[in-house]
Specification:
The chain is mainly alpha-helical. The protein is built from 16 helices and no strands.
């Protein structure tokens, strides 16, 4: 048996046996024969794609018909194989799934129209196909990557959520956002925004990251993107506090919040006072302030230079004045700093 099939056999494990397993193996043989001599854009044999889609389906613990359809999903659309031949060998249920896939692949049925489909099994199959294509999207031209990733983010991932396929939805969103953030020189900045967003409640994080990524990619140049990222990062702690307070009120109601304003509130207040004293001690001295900020600035410059030297130059020119202004504002706010070391 070909080595390409091993990942699928591992995913299936002992869940399929007898006639069902034989049908899956036959579907692989048919797909391998029809895709023989074809290659993907990355140079790998084309059969690796339907096998990968079948693995995704098998990992969802779906039935053998969907696994067979995953293996055969491009045979009907991309080869000379006929519906009649497939129906004769694999039966109408599997062939109907393939017909549904072909309908979704037609020019007239782009992803925004997918939710109107009444066959959730076809949608599940298509989601597995889209997920593997997103995993291997680097072989496409950049413009096509942007279109497909945005489509997966805006339309395909919500379909996965509607079907209850949470893991598929999350991976699609993560991969699509990572791909989009890497286009147009915005990778470093979006990485910093994503790191800062770790302060936000987990439930709110994906929605805000999607919105910020969209805004970041629409900005005209590196300087505008940098200003936007710094503005977001500066406001992230306050936003995180606001969102967490709202979440607490939603979960427990105002009465529950009042009940917690005893010892925990006292400890929080003490911690806040200690943090303020520490901040005042740091910003009182230029030496201490820049000793704290210099490693962060150095990391930003080096990380940006790894992608584009011009981005690093922009950071060197624009970030120190912004940080200096922020330190000055903090000193004025806390009213305790003379700027001496």
């Amino acid at each position: 048996m070909s080595g390409h099939l091993r990942p699928l056999l591992t995913a299936v494990g002992g869940s399929l046996g007898g006639e069902r397993l034989r049908l899956v193996l036959r579907a692989y043989e048919v797909a391998d024969r029809w895709h023989s001599g074809r290659f993907r854009r990355d140079g790998s044999p084309y059969i690796t794609h339907p096998v990968a889609v079948a693995v995704i389906v098998a990992e969802m613990d779906l039935d053998h018909e969907l696994v067979c359809a995953a293996l055969l999903h491009d045979v009907l659309t991309d080869t000379a194989c006929t519906e009649e031949a497939l129906a004769a060998e694999f039966g109408e249920p599997i062939t109907n799934l393939l017909r549904g896939m072909r309908m979704l692949d037609s020019v007239e049925r782009r992803p925004p129209e997918w939710p109107v489909s009444t066959d959730e099994r076809v949608l599940t199959l298509k989601l597995a196909d889209r997920l593997h294509n997103q995993r291997t999207i680097s072989g496409l031209p950049e413009a096509r990557q942007r279109v497909n990733s945005q489509e997966n983010l805006d339309v395909v991932a919500p379909v996965a959520r509607r079907l209850g396929l949470t893991e598929v939805e999350e991976e699609l969103r993560r991969l699509a956002m990572a791909n989009l953030s890497g286009l147009g020189g915005a990778r470093t900045l979006f990485g910093a925004i994503t790191a800062g967003a770790s302060m936000l409640p987990a439930a709110a994080r994906p929605r805000w990251l999607e919105e910020w990524l969209g805004e970041l990619l629409t900005l005209p140049g590196g300087r505008a993107r940098l200003r936007f990222a710094l503005w977001l990062l500066a406001g992230m702690p306050r936003m995180a506090l606001t969102l967490r307070r709202q979440a607490a009120l939603t979960r427990g109601g105002r009465a529950a919040v009042r009940d917690r304003r005893t010892a925990p509130a006292g400890r929080a207040a003490a911690a806040g006072r200690a943090a303020t004293r520490c901040l005042r001690w740091v910003v009182r001295s230029d030496l201490r302030t820049w000793a704290l900020l210099a490693p962060l600035l150095g990391w930003l410059v080096l990380d940006a230079a790894a992608e584009r030297v011009t981005d690093a130059v922009v950071i060197v020119i624009t970030v120190p004045p912004v940080l200096a202004a922020a330190v000055h504002a903090i000193r004025a706010r806390i009213g305790d700093g003379d700027g001496r070391g």
